[in-house]
Amino acid sequence: MNIRKRILPVALAGLMISGSALAAATDGPSPMNTNPGASAGTQGAGGEVKFTGEITDVSCDVSTASKKQSVDLGKWAKSYFESRTETTQTPFTISVKDCPASVTKVAVLFDGDKDAGDNTLLKVADGGATGVGIKLYEGDRSTPIAIGSISKGVDKMVETEEGGSADLIFYADYKSDGAEIAVGPANAVSNFVMVYN
User: Fold this and answer.
1) How far apart, in whole angstroms, are the C-alpha atoms of residue 188 and residue 125?
2) Among 81, 120, 141, 154, which has the minimal tally of Cβ within 10 Å of its Cβ?
3) Nearest to 106 by CA among 25, 163, 23
4) What residue spans define the domains of the chain?
5) Architecture (CATH level 2) of domain 61-196
6) Which pLDDT score, from 0 to 100, does residue 11 have?
């Protein structure tokens, strides 16, 4: 009788271990290649992110003068913004050339740090002026381009022997973001990429 009592728990334990082993084998190993270790915290069920895209040869060459240019927005008195919210617009151009025939429209995506008071504006660098940001406009001088968005673009390419070319004209100015204005340098950098259709 005592022997039976001892054998039964051992047999049940064996069945539990076998069942666990079978379940683990059925589930298979984790799909993750990296184990960050226990110090990273408890890992649990997740999901999948699928990335899609394509590498193409549909692109133009950005002119050397357009790749790294500086646009002087001028010096403005703090008192100017007491009666106005924006300064005079300054034009700048981004030119592309050697476009293949498959390119029918060229646009620009302007990126950069967004102003805390108005996220459509480009933020000026820390340590300088505050209360203003830089506002971008299309070539018509009235349609704003928010930071992180794509311009309307140009769909009239000038055809040459080397390929198509286009000049994209934009305007920029300082705009009050509603916060108190403090004096200092008001510089900023916007990285851009060309968008082709």
Assistant:
1) 6
2) 141
3) 163
4) 61-196
5) Sandwich (2.60)
6) 46
